[in-house]
Write the structure tokens for this entry.
Amino acid sequence: MLGKILTISKNSATLEINKEANEINDLINLHVVFEDNNKKILGEIDSINQDTIKVTFLGELTENDFIGGLIKKPSLNARVRIINEQELSILTGNPDRSITLGVSPLYSNFPLNVSVDELFSNHTAIFGNTGSGKTYGICRIIQNIFPNSNIIPYKANLFIFDSYGEYINAFKDLNKNSPYYSFKVITTNMNKEYEKLNIPVCLLDLEDVLNLLEATNFSQIAMVDTALTYVKMFARQDKEASEFKNHILASAIISIMYTNQTSARIRDQIFEILSETNTPELCLEAEVPGIGFTRMFRNCFDIDSEGRFAEHKIISDYIKQFIQDNRKWNYEAKGVYYSLHDLETALNFTLYSERYLLNEAMYDSAMSLKVKLHDLVNRTNGRFFTSDGYITLDEYIKKVQMNGNKKSQIVNFNLEDVDDRFARTIVKIFGRMFMKFTRGLQNRASYPIHMILEEAHRYVLEGDDKTLFGYNIFERIAKEGRKYGLIMDLITQRPTDLNENVISQCANFLIFKINHPADLDYIAKSVPNMSEDIVEKQKTLQAGTCVAFGRIFKIPMIAKMEKADPPPTSANCEVYNNWMVRLKQ
């Protein structure tokens, strides 16, 4: 089949074709071994013409390893043959501590085993057109992790962020393989009979709240940061918290009273403040003592014939008793919980304490936050945030994984019922939580967590948050998460929309068929070690077949995935069955 060597160049060799051999065309992409003076050089058949075969050199095979690249080329007298199964095993990894990725269609369905550590301790990117089989393939890989055996991944922690509920069918019967396995669904769809998404407000960081409120400028960072400080202090519900509220309101009212505005305008502003933020002592219904009488606070702002407040001195004396400018306030608060409504109240206090309403330059930014938070509190997305008691981050993550009295190895977040912006914020919140949790472990990387992002282009965007916060959470996970045991798996048909810095940190790639020239060009430029040869290989792939390379294999391999059983719900709709009706004869 393979004849003698005709020529050897810098990176390839030309072989003579054995005319008597059959099925010459089936040699494309096969690997060959040049045996020369106790040395084995690996190559790949790149092209075939009428008389010759071109083989590209890949590296050197040793007794139990493969070394990429060559220092010395084979001689013209070297013997050339097709790679054997023992040598294939060197390229594909040790079957111990491994799972099956698929089979090699080039070598009679030779099983391609990959190291669990190499595959799951590194970030992985999975690219492919719609219908290329990537969802089926990923489901099959995850199903292979959970065998019916005595050694089981009980302590696995896979969190799937599922845009359309495609993975539920594939894993709903996971416990049939073992009673110790559990699969859990958390959903944003209120019509589905699964646990509803519920995030404790007390666990939201500054960046989480800013993302929820779609903050756009730096002044809003200080406003929200102060509001988070205030809401925790107010949640103590002690005497100091009450006195601090009175101090904020009294200072705001006094500052407004001494502005160069009409009395009617001053009264309207003060009434606006007290209608949104008030205390028993400072509210429109509070009783204000006078000389020999008391009257309601709102009545103290009656305007006389000269356009002034008739009770100006009584108002000033009453309000000033609550101002404590020289007091050092204790803002510390641990173990407290609060709701979005409490946060809204704290933000209102913040805006008045910093006198943003009197600052025209910051007024629009302040009002934007105020309106968006009020909208969040009162609309449907607000129901996904709870205030049902204080809970630590560790407790919450364990709670998310509990399914009855069992730990769930796979938790599926079904985000099909919310828009892209809110879904992206939810994924960022969990990304930040997981990063904080894994970094805080006493034994580093002792609780590995995998974030599997289906439709990753919805979340992992280029430059997202970087301008405002100085960092992107997905970039931080990509760069630092691996050493703490936080791993991302990115699945998308739109690689051009992904953050390039995140892709550059991926160590494993599964490339299914991609047709769009822009996507191909982007992958070629962005993916490490992405050669022209790999780009060309994936163009001819069948559905369910991919080019796999990175830490999992010594060289790029074409892998045919087994069909997921049960399959995900990602197939096309059956138009014929849904269209046609048989008429009675």
Summary: Residues 233 and 331 are 5 Å apart (CA to CA). Residues 99-181+409-568 form a domain with the Rossmann fold fold (CATH 3.40.50.300). The two ends are 63 Å apart (CA to CA).
